[in-house]
Amino acid sequence: MLPDHVQAFIDAEIAANRTDFGDLRAVVLNGTLKPSPTPSHTDGLIEVSSRVLRGVGARFDTFRVVDHTIPPGVYPGPRRPPRPRQRDHQLGSRQSHAPQSGVPMNATTVVGSSQGRG
Fold first, then answer.
1. For 102, left (φ over 0), alpha (ψ -120 to 50), or beta?
2. Judging by DSSP bridges, how do beta strands 24-30 and 108-114 pair with one another?
3. Most buried by CB count within 10 Å: which residue of 20, 31, 61, 110?
4. Nearest C-alpha neighbor of 95 from the set 65, 75, 74, 72
């Protein structure tokens, strides 16, 4: 639940909007470490964005990354699954197996695209 003054600000911004965002679709990747249905603070941040986007007519989807198996990197084509990673098990060896996407896993990322525009 949003504080009243935040909700009033959002409502005023939506009412002042004169642009049609009906063709906009937004996808938010919730990078919380808490699996569903456990509430997280990131949900609260996403709630603000979702109210604004829905208020101006945009479609909006949210995915909790922790609830899905998402392999790191890019692999060629939907028919060839990613190869298993080779891990170095030598003593004293430390390798990071974090995704190399450049996006911090605790960040809220909004990606939008308009239909028919690329």
1. left
2. antiparallel
3. 31
4. 72
80 falls within a domain:
no
The model's pLDDT over 39-92, given as tens digits with 9 standing for 90+, comes to: 999 998 898 888 889 999 999 899 999 999 888 777 666 666 656 666 554 444
- 60 in a structural domain: yes
Range of the domain at 64: 1-6+22-70+99-118
Q: Looking at the 3D structure of the chain, how many domains does it have?
A: 1
Q: Which long-range contacts (CB under 8 A, 24 or more apart) does 37-42 make?
A: 42/106, 42/108
pLDDT of residue 18: 92
Instruction: Report DSSP state, residue 3.
Output: -
Q: Is residue 85 part of a domain?
A: no
* CA pair distance 33, 112, nearest whole angstrom: 23
Against a cut of 0.70, is the pTM above it?
no
Q: Which residues are bridge partners to 30 per DSSP? A: 64, 108
The answer to whether residue 76 is domain-embedded is: no
